[in-house]
Request: fold
Amino acid sequence: MRRNILDLTREELSENIKPSFRAKQLFQWIYQKRVDDFAKMSNIPKDLRTKLQEDFTIGVPKIIKEEISKDGSKKYLFGLQDGHTIEAVLLPMKKEERDEEGNIVKEAKYTICVSSQVGCKVGCEFCLTAKGGFVRNLTPGEIVGQVLAIYEQNKIPANRRVNIVYMGMGEPLDNLENVAKAIKIFSDEFGLSISPRRQTISTSGLAPKIKKLGEMNLGVLLAISLHAVDDELRQKLMPINKAYNIESVIQAVKEFPIDQRKRVMFEYLVIKDLNDDIKAAKKLVKLLHGIKAKVNLIYFNPYPGSPFQRPEPERVEKFQRYLLDHGILCTIRESKGLDISAACGQLKEKSSGCAI
Ligand code: SAH
Ligand code: SF4
Reply:
C-alpha cells in the first residue's frame, strides 16, 4: 500500500529519503508550488521520482461541496478515502485591498477551521458533531489536506497570513499525536510556514492531555471550552467534566507554557437562562484570577431539535461589561456562517463548529 506523503513531517520524510535536502524540495513542491504529481518535480532525479510514485500518494481530500455564506465564510465538505466525510471552514478575517491600478495594498487574512476527528467521543450536550458519535481519528495528512484543498480552491498563495484553529469536528487532544504532526507540517518553513503561534488548539478540557501538549513545547495557542463555572452545570453540558473537573482544567492551564505576548482563550457558550447571569460572570472572574486569559462569549447556535436557546443580546452584553470592568479581556463572537451552518458546533458528518 502506498503511503500518503502528507502524513509525514519533513523530519520523518528525510528519514525515508536521502539526502535530506530532497525532503525540503519535496515540501516546496507539494506545499508551496502545489504540484500534485511526482513526475512534474523537475529538480528531483528521475529514478527517485519513480520510487516516490511507487511508495507514496499525495492524498488531498476531495471537496464534495462548497457553501458560501453571506458574510463570506465558506464551508467545505470533504470525502475521505474510506467514504467518511468531514468539514472545514474558511473565514476571511480581512479583505484584500487594491489601489486604483489594481495592485494589492493590503493582503487578505484568513482563518481556517479544521476537523481533527470523524465525530467525537466527548459527547457535549449542545454540540451537533457529538450526535453522530465517534468514528475515527484523522491522520495528519487528512488534517493537513483540508487546508491544502482550501488553499487550492481559493488560490491562496503559500506565503499568505493564515491562522489555523482546531475547532472543527472532533476533540484535537484526543488525537494529539496526529494533531502535533499536523502542527509541525503546517509550520514548516519549506511548506506553508504557518507559525505555531498562529495555530490554536481548542479543547473541551482533557487536563492530562493539556499537560502533555505543554510538555511537547510546540508553541501553539490554547483555547479552553469552559462554558460553565460550576461543576454541576458543566457536568450536565459536558460529560468530560466528570473525569476532569473545572479545577483540574484551570490547574492544567496555569502550568501550560504560553508565549509572553499571548493569552489563553476561554470559550464561553452563552445559553439562555442557563449560564448568562451576572452571578456566573462573577464566578468566572474569580476562576480566571492569575491567568493571562481572554474570554470569548459565543452565542449558542440552536440547531433543529436542540434543547437550548440563543441568549438575549442585552444579557450577553451585560456579561461582557462585567468581565471588562473587572480587568478581563472579553469579546463577543458573532457567529460566522450561520446561514450555512458553518458556525460553532454545527459541523457534522454528511451535513450540508467553528468558534471564531
Ligand atoms: N472539541 C473541541 C473543538 C471543537 S468544538 C472543543 O470542544 O473545544 C469548537 C467550539 O464550538 C467549542 O468551543 C464548542 O464548545 C463550540 N460549540 C459546540 N456546539 C456549539 C453550539 N451549538 N453553538 C455554539 N458553539 C458550539
Ligand atoms: Fe466534541 Fe468539542 Fe463537540 Fe464537545 S464541543 S462534542 S468536545 S467537538
Notes: The first strand starts at residue 3 and ends at 4. The mean pLDDT is 91.
